[in-house]
UniProtKB/TrEMBL annotation:
Any Pfam family: HTH_DeoR
Location of the HTH deoR-type domain: 9-64
Alphabetically ordered keywords of this record: DNA-binding, Transcription, Transcription regulation
GO molecular function: DNA binding
Native species: Alicyclobacillus fastidiosus
Keyword Transcription: yes
SMART domains: DeoRC (SM01134), HTH_DEOR (SM00420)
Domain of life: Bacteria
Mitochondrion listed as a keyword: no
Protein name: DeoR/GlpR family DNA-binding transcription regulator
Length: 258
């Protein structure tokens, strides 16, 4: 057996989605061979993934799910730096224990974290992101808490007073918050003031709160600050991130995990 073949049904389905996103339409026999399962098992996987709108079945095979116009911008971002984001997601998920309460902000990196967290048992996911909620909802072993508010079409984030008031009454074990900028002077930033406030509330509503960002965000500054460098419990980045930049962050009391 190929050591790289996925070992569980969840891993296998994640692999199928990722493979189709990278390679496009693929025949069933090819996917069956890659996953080292029978075509009957593979067809069942495809049925489940299609019901979750993660792929679409075509004659003799499968293809990536089609995005509607409102999803184009988000899915374009989701396809950028995928290796780094998946690496960060695995690191983040390793910090979560079964039965814990986890807050996830909107964002592409946190979407990958959600996909890792469904492999856990009996956890509660609290999120303001409608796309994350849609992915998590089918799994009966996950308790989903959806934070309401005004939904931003670009990020699928629910923000505003409704979201902030809900978070003010939540006590979570751990929070993961994505940002658009990581700068040694300006800290962690994002382009929208309302979303920044909600993200800040998420960090404060958890016992431990982490910023998650790949190194493409390094040196960038957006208009709204989410947190200073020393405020979160840590920053989770990809392993290939610049040692020099990380040293500068650590000199400013920012704990970096990779």
């Amino acid at each position: 057996m190929d050591n790289n073949a996925p070992n569980t049904a969840v891993d296998r389905r994640d692999f199928i989605v990722e493979y189709l996103e990278e390679h496009g339409e693929t025949r069933i026999d090819q996917l069956s061979e890659l996953c080292e399962v029978s075509e009957i098992t593979l067809r069942r996987d495809l049925e489940i993934l299609e019901s979750q709108n993660r792929i679409r079945r075509v004659r003799g095979g499968a293809a990536p799910a089609l995005a509607n116009p409102l999803e184009e911008m988000f899915h374009e971002k989701l396809s950028l730096n995928t290796r780094e984001k998946r690496e960060i997601a695995r690191t983040a998920a390793a910090l979560v224990q079964d039965s814990q309460v986890v807050i996830l902000s909107a964002g592409t990196t946190t979407t990958y974290i959600a996909r890792e967290l469904i492999k856990k048992q009996n956890i509660t996911i609290v999120t303001s992101a409608i796309n994350i909620a849609a992915e998590v909802a089918p799994y009966s072993h996950i308790t989903l808490v959806m934070i309401g508010g005004i939904v931003r079409s670009g990020s699928y984030a629910a923000v505003g007073h409704l979201a902030d008031d809900a978070l003010d009454n939540i006590n979570a074990d751990i929070a993961f918050v994505g940002v658009d900028g990581v700068d040694t002077e300006s800290g962690f930033t994002t382009p929208n003031f309302m979303e920044a406030r909600t993200d800040t509330m998420m960090l404060k509503s958890a016992t431990t709160g982490y910023i998650v960002a790949d190194d493409s965000k390094f040196g960038k500054v957006k208009i709204a600050r989410v947190a200073r460098l020393d405020e979160p419990s840590g920053l989770i980045v990809n392993r290939s991130a610049s040692d020099d930049f990380i040293s500068e962050l650590e000199m400013r009391n920012c704990r970096v995990i990779r």
